[in-house]
Amino acid sequence: MLSVSGIRTAALALIDRDGLENLSMRRLAQELDVQAASLYSHYRTKEDLLADIANEIMAEVDVSGFDSGDWRHGLTVWARSYRAALAAHPNLVPVIAAGPGRREAALRRADAIHGGLVAAGWPARHATMIGASTKYLVVGAAINSFSRGFDADVQVYRDRYPNLSQAHRLSEHAAEIDDDSFELALSAFLDGLGQTFADLKRAPTAARPGGEGP
Q: What's any GO biological process attached to this entry (predicted)?
């Protein structure tokens, strides 16, 4: 029997295999061996289906770290779990990264992140920018692999690009390099925020930048 969960599972498998651009309700119906009309009794539009899939994937993203009151821990847990969720389904990144819109689960996460940062002492405007900056970092890391962008043929680099003499080895170690690179970027980002936070705390109260939340 056709079910909502079965439709989501089949749609996600199709996207993972063939790409987001190849998902259509007609194609999905063929995968499920049903008529396209059967799908519309569960999902009014393809966009509704994609939003539901995005919600399911993003349920794995952990924002509980902000409960501790430690903004650095909260951002670390959120960023790592967010990247893991996106990396598991890279073809769906454009949908997930588009923003919360009216998706209830996404808005609850955004509320927890913003509220956690403000509760930890960040001005509302900074909390908004930190949320955006973290998203830029994570989505950039998930949408492509730096290491896999290099050719494995040593001849490509040997004569013309002497500073890239080891570039042919990058793809072989792509997962390790990409993971370590993300952790380096995240650590540097958090260290920079730590300095900004300390500067804000030292500033006279009247001079502290404020602002409103999103």
A: negative regulation of DNA-templated transcription
Do residues 165 and 157 lie in contact, with contact meaning Cβ atoms separated by under 8 Å? yes
CA angle 109, 115, 117 (to 5 degrees): 105
Q: Which residues of 43-80 are buried (b: 16+ CB within 10 A; e: fewer)?
A: beeeeebbbbbbeebbeebbbebbeeeebebbbbbbbb
What integer best gives the mean pLDDT of the chain?
Answer: 89
User: Quick one: 124 and 194 in the same domain?
Assistant: yes
Please give the model's pTM, rounded to 2 decimal places.
0.83
Structural domain including 12 reads 4-44
Helices (H) and strands (E) in the chain, counts: 10, 0
- The verdict on 116 and 194 lying in the same domain is yes
23 and 109 housed in the same domain: no
